């Protein structure tokens, strides 16, 4: 089951990636993606092992960003792959049928390609500008999500699509009706004064609206 809220780790001057993961799990995150950039392999691996044990302790799913070989080595639950990383079909051969593989899409064509490559979910973005990621693809905005999710629906594509990029709790009521499965969030949780309150508000807003009889 793909969570509707993916927490993406972020290092700050106060905490390591693993400490950020721990704080998020303690605050209610049930899905953590360890997103380490520009660190030596041994440091990356140590952070992955720490984050895995934190996720096991809290019963959260542990996804490693970018590196399928390291995901296999540390026993992560899965991997998230962008356009610059190993192709999902190749990662599937390495990781086997039970591991979770996510892929990044910026367009409807990307979603179709990822589906053919056998991913379990799609991270579609960016929703808006964010400083968390360098070299952002063009901003999709609400219009972009509406158009791409409409194309998915018309094509009978039902793979879980997770929105990403500068997303806050306040965006969720606007994004949810486009048909997204959930959201991936880093700053709005990592930098929140109260992470538990931030996660609780996001989860509340992710609840599907009740169906009203006309
Ligand atoms: C859930 C989710 N969606 C998209 C991304 C972005 O992946 P990528 O395009 O490879 O960029 P980096 O995160 O590696 O900088 C993601 N990480 N997670
Ligand atoms: C990894 C990634 N891919 C597209 S935007 C983004 C950053 C998400 O972090 P934030 O929620 O802080 O914008
Ligand atoms: Mg990547």
TrEMBL record:
Cofactor binding note: Binds 1 Mg(2+) ion per subunit.
Organism superkingdom: Bacteria
Class of the enzyme per the UniProt entry, highest EC level: transferase
Pathway(s) of this molecule: Cofactor biosynthesis; thiamine diphosphate biosynthesis; thiamine phosphate from 4-amino-2-methyl-5-diphosphomethylpyrimidine and 4-methyl-5-(2-phosphoethyl)-thiazole: step 1/1
Gene3D superfamilies: Aldolase class I
GO CC terms of this entry: cytoplasm
EC number, UniProt record: 2.5.1.3
Start and end residues of each Thiamine phosphate synthase/TenI domain: 6-189
Catalytic reaction equation(s): 2-(2-carboxy-4-methylthiazol-5-yl)ethyl phosphate + 4-amino-2-methyl-5-(diphosphooxymethyl)pyrimidine + 2 H(+) = thiamine phosphate + CO2 + diphosphate; 4-methyl-5-(2-phosphooxyethyl)-thiazole + 4-amino-2-methyl-5-(diphosphooxymethyl)pyrimidine + H(+) = thiamine phosphate + diphosphate; 2-[(2R,5Z)-2-carboxy-4-methylthiazol-5(2H)-ylidene]ethyl phosphate + 4-amino-2-methyl-5-(diphosphooxymethyl)pyrimidine + 2 H(+) = thiamine phosphate + CO2 + diphosphate
Gene Ontology biological-process entries: thiamine biosynthetic process; thiamine diphosphate biosynthetic process
Cofactor(s) the record lists: Mg(2+)
Keywords: Magnesium, Metal-binding, Thiamine biosynthesis, Transferase
GO MF annotation list: magnesium ion binding; thiamine-phosphate diphosphorylase activity
Residues binding 2-[(2R,5Z)-2-carboxy-4-methylthiazol-5(2H)-ylidene]ethyl phosphate: 130-132, 166
Entry-linked Pfam families: TMP-TENI
Membrane-spanning residues: none
Residues the record lists as binding Mg(2+): 66, 85
Annotated residues for binding of 4-amino-2-methyl-5-(diphosphooxymethyl)pyrimidine: 33-37, 65, 104, 133
NCBIfam families: PRK00043.2-3, thiE
Family per similarity comment: Belongs to the thiamine-phosphate synthase family.
Its biological purpose: Condenses 4-methyl-5-(beta-hydroxyethyl)thiazole monophosphate (THZ-P) and 2-methyl-4-amino-5-hydroxymethyl pyrimidine pyrophosphate (HMP-PP) to form thiamine monophosphate (TMP).
The protein's name in its UniProt record: Thiamine-phosphate synthase
Protein's gene: thiE
